[in-house]
Amino acid sequence: MKRFFQLTGWSVGLLCLAGAAAQASPTTTTPQWSYSFNVSPESQVLSTVGNNGSLAFTGAQNVSASGSSVVTLATLQLSSSSAAPDSAVLANNNWSGVLTIHDAASTNSASLTLSGSFTGPMINGQPSPATFSQNNANVYFNPNSLKIAPGAGWSTVMGSNGQVADYVWKAGSNSYTIPVSDFSFTPPGIPQSANPQLGSTQLNGAIAATIEVNVGTTGGGGSGGNGNGHGASTPEPSTLLMSCFGLGFAGLASWRRRRNLAAQLA
User: Taking a C-beta distance cutoff of 8 angstroms, is the pair 134, 142 a contact?
Assistant: First the structure.
């Protein structure tokens, strides 16, 4: 009998250890993705009224990213042949581009179109023309002009003001969220800096956005997935513990039956 209990104990112990190994905690992997912001042409040049300056609007191309990130969609660079302040006036203040996000895990992509306009300083609550020269720059982003046109696959989250607060795209087990309020604009510096410490350094402007990535989970151990994008389910620890006790009692009952049968035959 002692030997039987020893064998049963060892068997139950090994079973519990195996079950504990299979009960791995869900793991998360930081999603890898990339993006492009395509303008037409790749470097869109906005000219001035007198053709004495321009604004180069260049979109990002195939930039790799990992997890939630603040990304630069486009850079802005001024050029002017005139030294007279505010002598270069943008003839066309409008800009547009297509933001495309590519999820590496699912190999899926989704796009949305962004558009807006540049402006000068606000005067009496009204935007003034965007102007600059070799020695000054008054080119800003008009936040009220931002328009977003989502392509296929995007859903929206409404804010308390009844306006769209977020655009959300799901790619496999990952989801990408673009908060409308988190777009930012860095005004471009003057074409030829008058600051002696900077010399002729060109200070570029930028349009940036925050892209939040919610990571999917994958169950550890087992055979991997169950075919629907989720990890294979594994028993809860309490279930494993009850199974161990059940097997132990089943072994004890079997031993008692054999002992009673032997006593009856003796």
Answer: no
